Amino acid sequence: xxxxxxxxxxxxxxxxxxxxxxxxxxxxxxxxxxxxxxxxxxxxxxxxxxxxxxxxxxxxxxxxxxxxxxxxxxxxxxxxxxxxxxxxxxxxxxxxxxxxxxxxxxxxxxxxxxxxxxxxxxxxxxxxxxxxxxxxxxxxxxxxxxxxxxxxxxxxxxxxxxxxxxxxxxxxxxxxxxxxxxxxxxxxxxxxxxxxxxxxxxxxxxxxxxxxxxxxxxxxxxxxxxxxxxxxxxxxxxxxxxxxxxxxxxxxxxxxxxxxxxxxxxxxxxxxxxxxxxxxxxxxxxxxxxxxxxxxxxxxxxxxxxxxxxxxxxxxxxxxxxxxxxxxxxxxxxxxxxxxxxxxxxxxxxxxxxxxxxxxxxxxxxxxxxxxxxxxxxxxxxxxxxxxxxxxxxxxxxxxxxxxxxxxxxxxxxxxxxxxxxxxxxxxxxxxxxxxxxxxxxxxxxxxxxxxxxxxxxxxxxxxxxxxxxxxxxxxxxxxxxxxxxxxxxxxxxxxxxxxxxxxxxxxxxxxxxxxxxxxxxxxxxxxxxxxxxxxxxxxxxxxxxxxxxxxxxxxxxxxxxxxxxxxxxxxxxxxxxxxxxx
Length: 583
What we know:
The chain is of the alpha+beta class. The chain folds into three domains: 92 residues, CATH 2.40.50.140; 245 residues, BirA Bifunctional Protein, domain 2; 126 residues, Gyrase A, domain 2. 29% of the residues lie in helices and 24% in strands. The strands form five sheets. Strands 6-9-10-22-21-20-17-11 form an eight-stranded mixed sheet, sandwiched between helices. Helix 4 packs across helix 6 and helix 14 packs antiparallel against helix 15. The mean pLDDT is 94.
């Protein structure tokens, strides 16, 4: 055997035993006639001791070991004199009697430590080395535990795990598909699934009334901290249910995972907030409710004072930052520069200081009297020492900018504690989004989302006001999962296609198989999908989902370790009947 124990296993109870360990050299320390070697594997670190007076040959060999050499040692477990409370094996050490180098290693390009000296690019290039670091490895262990416990929990509720195809047909709406050319069907393409949506609905028609799958999904979209081109969903669907059934089932699952991972008992029901209220009070459909600082609309009270910035726009809103009246001009300028960033798009920032003596100082003193400023402050319930920050412009765009400003200020004030969790359900999303460029409606989620049955008459008179029977679970400003009740009636589904601009022929070509299935007794059904990557990231306290994925892509969608995507041989192009034109 290469080992009788792992490097994280031995304790005081093993003192006096003979052991064999195998692993990687973490570090060596030379102290006169003694050499200490830390050997590491997935399970931990154990200190080895080699004494020149006991075995000079082994001592000399130990002094040739480099970082990340793979070694095997045999020896006796001994009590450690200078105990190390930072590691679980810190009470013992191994008095080495045999040492074998199983494989040498080049000097790694960065240190294999929790606080490594390697930057993101070089760590991604040598990801197999990065994964040796304990904090990275622990993220993947947590991912395994969450996935395993999720399977166990859903199995107990009668859900069946069913795999669905990876090579499917391309469908419109949503994000851009990744496409795969077919060699056997010249000129035709598969698409990689953005989700198993159509197949899980077909499973409901098939009578599999409780389905789940931990599924790989693919979307060709611009990347950010919580996006990767390939990601993993905990995908679920249920038959003969209503929205309340879905929310209760999966709120229970998340509460169970919080108990399992964090030993936290979430006994209260998750609050529910309509999409309209989320946008009005937080400027986001995934609000962070760990802190207040709600958006306040000001258009009516600030209009008519000859301040063209406020008078010429449809929306004026602001937030109140408690205790921030002491912000210097430099700090306010930094916030102004923040909201002017292209990705946020505000043109400027107006402030009102609520001074300790009850007076007000503002960047718009020229247009507003002290009484005017006092009345504005009253809308925020602002107190002495508070700072009011105001933006103006297009309503949705300005609300989103205020959301970003709110989060930025909260971060500076330390209000976004990763050890505090504030979950909620966002419900009653709009069924449609209107696009000015194409002058048509698009499905806010997907074309199979059921409208709120109370709003069915509005489909003919005012589609933009129709609410979807859709829901998102949000925790700490992160959308962890979302879903909807699906349309199971063929006539209503055809009406949806019509409103979305599909001709009957196009709808048949894209979704004919689903429409056909619905004619054979489709049950009422709905479901939800959680982002496994986001869920793990939340529990691990990470800033990006990349750190809980074994082999992620960088922000350009490249795997710099294997240099993908890459060009393919002309022979392959010819087999696929493809011609590359980079014009």
